[in-house]
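To assess whether ligand presence alters the predicted conformation, the chain was also submitted together with magnesium ion. Input:
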Amino acid sequence: MNEPRAVIFDLGKVLLDFDYSLVAQRLAAPTGREAEQIRVLLDHSPLLFRLESGQMTTDAFYREVAALTDFTGSFDEFADIFGDIFAEIGPMVELNAQLRECGVPTFIFSNTNDIAVRHIRANYPFFAHFTDYVFSYEVGAMKPNARIYAEVERRTQLRGAELLYLDDRKENVDAGAERGWRVVHHESPERTIAAVRAAGLL
Ligand SMILES: [Mg+2]
């Protein structure tokens, strides 16, 4: 089998770790509310789904979360709190750099939102070093919905086994595999890097 012609990276828990309990603690502190109650409002919640599938503006999201949590700060203060939840996963950032040195196009493919993307762009230089970006809130569909996978194929002009896709969520890699993409269910940088080498890259 030929080598893949591009590598598709999921973002959360693959290139960047994230922790919504940090937002919950910051929002809860001034109000005396339970942080756990606020975390449930955010992480994998219907509210976040609406934001990340493009069904809700960031401003409407801010207003709704502020009302639910008694947050009284401005949108910019909210965006700082909500955006600052990430930590770089060094070996995976390095993997992207090595692939690009080898001339392999790399892409980001993420269920995410505008607040997170702005924060990441401003704070993580590695994020600039991808060929293109497919974000759920821009496409109006979230992984594992087939529509957003079709968008990756359109942007890359590649399909099937030409694509090697890395994601930590099983349902997401399964949806890629169904289209004939080569997939790696990301569990650790060590395993994923070995799988990328085994595919003939690096
Ligand atoms: Mg992920």
